Amino acid sequence: MNIKHTRRSFIQSVSAFGVAGLMPPSVYSQVSSTASNVIRKRAIPGTSEMLPVVGFGSTAAVMQVLQDGPDLLTQLLDTMLSMGASVVDTAPREESIDEAFGKVLQIPRFRDSLFVTSKIGLRRWLAERGVDKEGGIHQIDLTRRFFDRNPADLVQVESMTDIDIHWPTLKELKDRGAARYIGITTSATADHERMEAFMRRENPDFIQVNFSLLEPEAEQRILPLAQDMGMGVLINSPFNGGEFFRVIRGHDLPDWAADFDCETWAQFNLKYILGVSAINTVLTETTRTIHLLDNIGAGFGRLPVAAMRRRIKAHFNSLA
Ligand SMILES: NC(=O)c1ccc[n+]([C@@H]2O[C@H](COP(=O)([O-])OP(=O)(O)OC[C@H]3O[C@@H](n4cnc5c(N)ncnc54)[C@H](OP(=O)(O)O)[C@@H]3O)[C@@H](O)[C@H]2O)c1
């Protein structure tokens, strides 16, 4: 599907979803005034493949599919495409849920346009059978069957769990052409040292790590190392599952946020994150189209550079 991410197509898609009237004026004016430009993209190191800088953590929306049907998820994915975003992070769930999710991912416009990550994960299935190599292989096979993406875009070991068991499986997967990229994830700052050691030893194609104004640690060692070693970088937990919004609640966005084309608090955080050039894509999780539009809006316009990033951090710390 050839989607032109123009201001006109964006406004048409917003109208089609009926969300324009639900958006605070600041969000709507921000995304509609910047949608004449394409979303910022960054190349996966060592390739010419470009990833849009804001992506979607799908867990909450996917968990609703069995009970409520696929409409919400479909609307969120269409919203992404209409804005030029394409990265969807997934993790294995109950088989019935992943089967229903897979049916949505196989809709041609999604199958052809999305970059879908998957994981060997912590699902109960593995725990019940004991986490072993065969369990991980079975889990990957199921995801590949349900999602019907061959090769898989990116397969990751979730939270580096039993990494020594599962990493050889991912290497075999890549060697036989069943995965384009392989990587590891963590959302725990306590695991950064272990992640760094693994990066130096195994040189994964991608890392996925927690990084935000609330959890800035990855910028010290993990992100520079990923850049030096030429790894793709995904960022998770940008809002710490919503904690970020509890900190800024009741405070006005400073006027100087306009200097880097920022009109909302979500973008204040996301643009701070994206100010680190090592990062390909920040994954934001939401079940609300209006929030997704707000988040993807951070992929448009200027980004803060060093002095402005220091100002953002100092201001946020004064509120936290
Ligand atoms: N180990 C791992 O591999 C790992 C661990 C954690 C996370 N992740 C990945 O990272 C993704 C994101 O991390 P996360 O799950 O911690 O979620 P998050 O993106 O840090 O925070 C999600 C929360 O923020 C709210 N929110 C999102 N955008 C908003 C906006 N513009 N305005 C106001 N509220 C907003 C959401 O509520 P609403 O639904 O109301 O918008 C939700 O409560 C996950 O989906 C997953 O893909 C991976």
Gist of the model:
The chain has 320 residues and is an alpha/beta fold. 48% of the residues lie in helices and 15% in strands. The strands form two sheets. It has an eight-stranded parallel barrel with strand order 3-4-5-6-7-8-9-10, surrounded by six helices. Strands 1-2 form a two-stranded antiparallel sheet.
Record keyword descriptors for this entry.
320 residues; TIM Barrel; 48% helix; globular; binds NADP nicotinamide-adenine-dinucleotide phosphate
How would you characterize the overall build of this protein?
It is a single chain. Residues 1-13, 17-22 and 32-36 have low confidence and may be disordered. The chain is built from 16 helices and ten strands. The chain has a domain at 49-237 and 280-302: TIM Barrel (Alpha-Beta Barrel), CATH 3.20.20. The strands form two sheets. The protein has an eight-stranded parallel barrel, surrounded by six helices. Strands 1-2 form a two-stranded antiparallel ribbon. The chain has 320 residues and is an alpha/beta fold. The longest helix has 15 residues, at 133-147. It has helices at 7-17, 25-34, 59-63, 65-68, 71-83, 95-105, 108-113, 124-129, 133-147, 163-175, 192-202, 222-229, 243-248, 265-274, 289-297, 306-319; strands at residues 41-43, 50-52, 54-57, 87-89, 115-120, 152-157, 179-185, 206-210, 232-236, 281-285. The N and C termini lie far apart (44 Å). The protein is globular. 44% of the residues are buried. Bound molecules: NADP nicotinamide-adenine-dinucleotide phosphate. The site of NADP nicotinamide-adenine-dinucleotide phosphate has 28 residues, from helix 3, strand 10 and helix 15.
